[in-house]
Design goal:
about 800 residues, alpha/beta, GIY-YIG endonuclease, 7 domains, seven-stranded parallel beta sheet, six-stranded mixed beta sheet, 25 helices, DNA-binding, isomerase
Length: about 800
DNA sequence: AGCACGCCGACT
DNA sequence: GTCGGCGTGCTC
């Protein structure tokens, strides 16, 4: 066993072979971090994936420099998980490594310069920059590349360094610095040897001439005697404001007071009271029993609980059982904003045993969670998808809440994976139980449940016997024909809103389109405002008074006249949420109407402020995008209106109907949570559309029957497996050619009907990159693995063409 | 990925 | 003539 396969934090295929030096042989193990040289002098933190004895044939391996960990930092379950991820999602282990580890745990060496020993520098022949650098190096032996920017213009740095290296005056050195530093907090105490009456009186009399110091001393003494076990923070002494650090320093100098430091967590943990959870209702108890039974049979559970049925209660019970067995639980949520409420609920019960992990933590905070998980200091972790990679020691339960949510598989970050599916696999390696929970499960999960791959548990009653909301479809076409409309609202819809307001209740209006108008168009010449980076029309945002591209974020001012023909007849087309908000405000001038979308929630605490406003019932109507479907659990919302429901269906995506159903159902769940008299109004031109009809009768089985039938008919998942390959490049010609080539290679290995495209992407150019797509529709089951092998072969063949190496490629498995 | 090497246009 | 642009090649 003299060689190790090492993963490097680079987007490179596969792993690299290094030789293990004799002295490291006894201690090296898979899952440990090591320092390895890679390409010249550069040093990376690699990860040992495998130890073996196969001598490489085509190259001479280099040696591992040193081992960074005493014990493997990555448990063996995680190593298996990574292997599965890279095979299933066709991504490199390096990508996973980069994604999984906080950057402080995978440091790269930094390049330093130093003078060569015993050189005589001939200053006469140096230019100014070279002279500066030599002089700087004479003062401080090592200089970091970024420090050089302070005295040499950026453009000339490389030239200067290269010329000094040629002259053999300086050389390059690589150093790895530990970046993570524990946070230290200063504490104070009275010097112990003076802690007796005699000495204390003496000190106080000595301090008579310095009253401030005396007061400070007395304050410390006071705090210390009051609770001798407590630690006194230095910072709290100055809160009163009468003392400065000078007074404190004087006391320290006189040796009366001691200052000391303790390492402190960056993550605040809950210190309040610990609360018990409420008892389960009858139907919850039944559901819980089914979950228990499934776990006994080693089956994973799909918990389908209608809105406010109390899925969380069941989660809590299972978590409790899990940690009572001495195991850890992982609670996954699709996004950070949702972690807050569940955290509030859990920390009352579990206090310090609870941790969180998500994209908003700083790097050092992530390292601290890593260490705590590694040392088993945290029993329950609440997190987003990246929490799957924490080094759990004995994971016993994984909960994936809102399992249908598309945030579990964002398209734009690599490695591309669906956290819901990955959670199932990870739990498998740990032999942990899994609960996928949702009020609107994904069609895929429902299919698995029907195939008995998941145990289906249905919770159809709201907690406390509260009734489910009622649905009503409003035929907008009819309303228009009988002239019973005002703008985008039928008079009936307006009446219903008014009724709700009159009863002092609140209403929610959903319109899932940002901005004020989709397009600003010139009536005279037809000009529309395109984004300069993308092939997309820019959306008009009235409140910010600008045009925005929703794909690259570019902003432009709104044209007053047509830039092409100077006509002033500019027409706004396509209704956005801002316009709906404006309309509602005009219809109900005496009501408080607020808007909730990413644009209005951008400011700090905007969300919190609006949340409080709604809670205090200062807000009467909330108009918003899909954002309002999540987390707004209030007691007095009785009406949900969707004035332009058709727009939810007209999206080019085979999941559009499923998404529409999920969004409508989720937002409906906000209504009548306490009264049981919630009402949902869906205004549409097509009240006969199957999706709307099925939502109205609210029959869960029939809805999924319908979705599954449609998917089967058009050969979409879960009946087939999809792989999307996207190619991007600045030059359209080049990607076009490349994608044609890749398409032909794929057709060589796969049946014709499996390969769709290549085609220009729906957004042909995004951020100045032209995109082409090839969609692979592969059969499920045994053949899938074979076909995927073929895809891999095709991709390798494609990569061998050097001209296509500059083309960016994304492979999205289970797209 | 990122860094070095190598080949062509815009400037002193 | 050079400087520096980026296309290409390679890393255990």
């Amino acid at each position: 066993m003299r060689y190790a396969q090492i993963i490097l934090p680079l987007n490179l295929k596969g792993s690299f072979t290094y030789r293990i030096p004799e002295e490291l042989m006894p201690s090296i193990q898979p899952g440990m971090r090591v320092l390895v040289p890679f390409r010249g002098k550069k040093i990376y933190t690699g990860l040992v994936f495998e130890i073996h004895d196969h001598e490489p044939e085509n190259f001479i391996p280099r040696e591992i420099i040193s081992i960074l960990d005493e014990f493997p930092i990555l448990p063996k379950e995680q190593i298996s998980f990574w292997n599965w991820l890279s095979e299933y999602y066709l991504c490199s282990p390096g990508e996973i490594y980069r994604f999984a580890f906080p950057s402080s745990l995978k440091l790269e060496s930094e390049t330093y310069l130093k003078l060569r020993p015993n050189v005589a520098v001939d200053f006469e022949n140096l230019d100014v920059n070279e002279m500066y650098l030599i002089q700087a190096l004479e003062v401080r032996q090592l200089i970091n590349l970024t420090d050089i920017e302070a005295f040499i213009p950026k453009k000339e740095i490389i030239k200067t360094i290269n010329s000094l290296i040629d002259l053999q005056y300086i050389e390059i050195d690589e150093k790895i610095a530990e970046k993570y530093k524990a946070r230290e907090v200063a504490y104070v105490k009275i010097n112990e040897k003076f802690l007796n009456n005699h000495d204390l009186t003496e000190i106080l009399s000595k301090l008579n001439k310095a009253p401030r110091q005396k007061d400070l001393f007395l304050l410390i003494l006071d705090k210390q005697t009051e609770t001798p076990s407590a630690y006194i923070k230095k910072s709290e002494l100055f809160e009163a404001g009468n003392f400065g650090s000078l007074h404190f320093k004087a006391l320290v100098d006189k040796n009366f007071v001691e200052e000391y430091y303790l390492q402190k967590d960056r993550l605040e943990s809950y210190e309040g009271e610990i609360e018990e959870i409420e008892e389960l209702s009858e139907s919850q108890k039944l559901a819980k029993k089914e979950v228990d039974k499934a776990f006994e049979d080693n089956k994973k559970v799909l918990l389908h609980g209608v809105t406010s049925s109390g899925k969380t209660h069941i989660y809590l019970e299972k978590i409790e059982e899990c940690i009572n067995e001495g195991k850890n639980a992982l609670f996954l949520l699709p996004e950070i904003s949702l972690t807050k409420q569940i955290t509030l609920r859990l920390e009352k019960k579990y206090g310090r045993q609870l941790g969180f992990y998500h994209q908003k933590l700083t790097d050092f905070e992530r390292v601290e969670v890593w260490r705590k998980i590694k040392n088993n200091d945290i029993q329950i972790l609440i997190g987003t998808r990246n929490a799957l990679f924490l080094p759990f020691q004995n994971l016993g339960l994984v909960i994936v809440d809102e399992e249908h949510d598309s945030a579990y598989k964002p398209r734009e970050v690599s490695p591309y994976f669906n956290a819901k599916d990955a959670a199932l696999v990870l739990a498998g390696f740990y032999k942990a139980g899994v609960i996928l929970g949702s009020a609107t499960p994904s069609v895929e999960s429902c299919y698995l449940a029907r195939k008995d791959k998941l145990k289906y548990v249905f919770l159809g009653e709201r907690f406390g016997d509260v009734k489910l909301p009622e649905y009503e479809l409003i035929n907008f076409k009819e309303a228009q024909e009988s002239k019973k409309v005002s703008g985008n609202f039928s008079l009936h819809l307006i009446d219903e809103i008014r009724k709700t307001l009159d009863e002092k209740n609140q209403a929610i209006i959903l319109h899932n389109r940002r901005g004020y108008a989709n397009v600003v168009e010139c009536e005279t010449c037809g000009y529309v405002n395109y984004c300069s980076n993308c092939d997309v029309v820019m959306t008009y945002h009235k409140s910010a008074n600008e045009m925005k591209c929703h794909y690259c974020g570019q902003r432009a001012s709104k044209p007053k006249t047509c830039p092409k023909c100077y006509s002033e007849n500019l027409n706004e087309r396509g209704v956005g949420v801002e316009q709906i908000h404006e309309e509602v405000s005009k219809i109900f001038p005496d009501s408080e109407v607020d808007r909730m979308d990413v644009d209005s929630m951008r400011k700090k605490f905007a969300y919190e402020k609006l949340y409080e406003k709604i809670e205090d019932r200062e807000t009467d109507i909330v108009v918003g995008t899909q954002m309002i479907s999540k987390g707004l659990d209030f007691d007095h919302i009785e009406l949900v209106a969707i004035p332009k429901a058709d727009s939810l269906l007209y999206v080019q995506d085979f999941r559009a109907e499923e998404r529409a159903y999920q969004l409508i159902t989720q937002v409906s769940g906000r209504a009548g949570r306490v009264s049981g008299k919630g009402k949902i109004l869906i205004q549409t031109y097509n009240p006969d559309h199957s999706v709307f009809q099925l939502i109205r009768i609210n029959n869960v089985t029939k809805i999924y029957d319908y979705f599954l039938k449609e998917r089967q008919k058009f050969h979409y998942p879960p009946f087939t497996k999809l792989i999307m390959i996207e190619l991007k490049h600045r030059k359209e010609e080049k990607v076009n050619r490349a994608s044609q080539f890749l398409g032909s290679v794929l057709r060589k290995y796969l049946p014709e009907e499996c390969v769709l495209g290549p085609e220009r992407a729906q957004i042909a150019r995004l951020n100045n990159l032209y995109q082409f797509q090839i969609l692979l529709k592969l059969p499920r089951g045994k053949n899938y693995e074979k076909f995927k092998e073929m895809v891999l072969i095709s991709l390798n063949e494609f990569e061998e063409i050097t001209a296509y190496q500059s083309i960016r490629k994304a492979v999205l498995v289970d797209f």
